[in-house]
Amino acid sequence: MTDKNEKIIALLGQPNSGKSTLFNALTGLKQHVGNWPGKTVEKKEGTFTYNGNKYLVADLPGTYSLSANSDEEIITRDYIASGKADVVCILADSSQLQRSLYMLADYAGIKVPAFLILNMSDVASEQGKIINAEAISEKLGIPVILFSAQDTKNYSGFYKAMEDAIQKQRLLNFSSLEEKYKKIPAYEKIKSIAPDNAIPGYSSSWLAAKAIEGDQPVLEKIKGNLSADKAKELQSLSAVEKGVLLTGECKFEWIDQILDGALVSEKQSRKLGKFDRLITHRFFGKPVVVLTVLFGLIASFIPALPFMIVGMLIGNLNGPIGSALASVNCPPFIVGIITDVLIRSIGFILQMLGFVFGVTLVFGLLEEVGVMARISYVFDNTMSKLGLQGKSVMPFLVSFGCTMGGAAGTRVIDNWGQKVLTIALAWAVPCGAAWAIVPMLSSIFFGAWAPLLIVVILLVMLFHMWLTAKVFGRSLVKKEDRYGMIMELPPYHKPKWGALLRYVLGRTRDTFFRVLKVILLVAFVFWLLSYSGSGLMENSILYKVGKVIEPFTKIFGMSWQLFMAFIASSLGKEGAVGVLGTIFSGNGAIGMGTVMGETVISNVNELLVANVSKPEALAFIFAITFNMPCIVALAATYQETHSAKWTAIIALYYTIVALLLAGVAYRVGLLIL
Question: 198-224: b or e for each residue (b if 16 or more CB lie within 10 Å)?
């Protein structure tokens, strides 16, 4: 519940205008993310205190306008119309003002106090652009400041403009825009019909412009306040051919008028640099992108290393702590919980957390300096065939190393449906852990034919991604949203390390707490099922349950032992072989050390060959390759989607598809092996 004395600031701007940077700098760790009620669109809110006053910041979805073309745009303007915001902070990119001020033009006519932030002013300065913010402010009637959201030491101008807009209730002066609208024949007639309060907070001028654009939600609300005759007249008047084009021309003319005398460019347009020419090359562009992402993936291990070392050290404490507990006659059951579950789990989480930190840092840096926009540009056309945008290619490539990193990489995707679909497809990409296990199993059972099996797996991966796009595409990405991006290569930026590190550390912290609860619970359940006082597997609950369900598991070509290893691969692919070795040897419980692949039976190869037929091995390989990647990827998926429903749907879908592929592989194996 919002404090009555708390002022609410709504951040409004186009994608990549710097809203997220400003939001993170203002709120720090005092923020929460979810979905808007009834909508699968990300909702971010946070708080900060200034001069003894508390402020709530609502980071509205990034949109290019305030039309009703998407859920993001509808949510944004409905929030403004609700009257919740005390002031709207409109952000524009100083380095490309003519385009980014379109949002301001679309806001004109809304009766909510506002102030304008000309963000990335440092980049504009490097381009040789001189911007007179005072001249723009005089024309607009609202506070306007040159600003760099990444420079957190110089926020005094922001706070001053914010307080000025709130205290003096500064409304945007759009009279000159109205004069331009009057050139549209139907405008004045529609304005005279449209009541000023049809949508609270919106002037009849704004309503008339949207009616001319054919904005159906606006038209319906206006009609609801009119008599039948007037509503019919409005419908007739609003049927303007190319209405969006006509109002758009007026808005851009108004923007040019606002910038006239206030924007001077001393330098000529810069030509493409060497890297841009290479990355946008018709033939070499895509290979350069792939190499760039792979290099970023490898570089992620450098900042991840300290976390991994600490995780390994903590994990290795299980021996000394176990011995110390045994020496004071602590029950073996309790010792097992503390050492095999608690200590091993924390060690495992810290090692995985290192990669979260590394990937988020490296790819956050690539996004900040402008490389990510170029990667998106190169693959935009290709990704659009799947209903996605160019930004989706990076999560796919990163998933070859770690699916969790791929899921985290979707944070740059503005459209929620495209973000979830990207994650769903990225799960089909076998991660680094799978590539460590699958070739080994293939070699054990199929020898020289192993490379052929790897090729088949890659082909199945592509088919899986195509099928998944078909299954989920219609639900997640509406037909009208199946577009790429507005393609424009932004200028390169100097990274602001402070803002970047604050974001990365906050992200890493959130991941830790989300993953900790899940892994501890699942690891404890698995350990408990496989534990027996005698130390023999045949006396465990896991063994008894396995024998009962074996008629079911055989349908998919797996014995109960293989099926249990398949379930364990949901925790981490590394542990599938270790779990099999433990089960087939008949000794010991399955702790996190086994699941992490640290505890492996010395003669595991002989045990596998002696207990698993080639058709069963083929089924098992396909099952673990296309099963849910790991428990950390599951947690990362929930963290990015903020939807327990869709996280569960994707996990269930992959489990079912993995079993079906295993069943098909088993029957093919019976025919050819």
Answer: bbebbbbbbbbbbbbbbbeebbebbbe
Share above pLDDT 90 across residues of the chain, in percent, rounded to a whole number: 26
Q: Residue 598 pLDDT > 80, yes or no?
A: no
Residues near 237 by beta carbon (within 8 Å), at least 6 away in sequence: 186, 189, 190, 193, 211
Whether residue 568 contacts residue 627, with contact meaning beta carbons closer than 8 Å, is answered with: no
- For the stretch 66-109, pLDDT in tens is 876 677 778 888 888 888 899 999 999 888 888 889 889 999 98
| Strand, coil or helix: 536 | strand
Residues facing residue 115 across a β-bridge: 89
Tens of pLDDT along 613-627? Answer: 999 999 999 999 999
pLDDT band (50, 70, 90) for residue 484: very low
Give the position of tokens 């996605």. Answer: 388
Q: Which amino acid is at 259?
A: L
Residue 272: CB atoms within 10 A of its CB come to: 11
Confidence at residue 167, expressed as pLDDT on a 0 to 100 scale: 92
Chain segment 145-161, per-residue pLDDT in tens: 999 887 878 899 999 99
Q: The tokens of 323 are what?
A: 């011995």
Contact by Cβ (8 Å): 541, 383: no
Rounded to whole angstroms, the Cα distance separating 595 from 424 reads 24
Decide if 251 contacts 102 (C-beta within 8 A): yes
Distance CA 410, CA 427 (A): 12
Tell me the one-letter amino acid at 103.
M
Instruction: Convert 114-168 into a string of H (helix), E (strand) and C (coil).
Output: EEEEEECHHHHHHCCEEECHHHHHHHHCCCEEECCCCCCCCCHHHHHHHHHHHHC
Neighbouring-strand partners of residue 12? 90
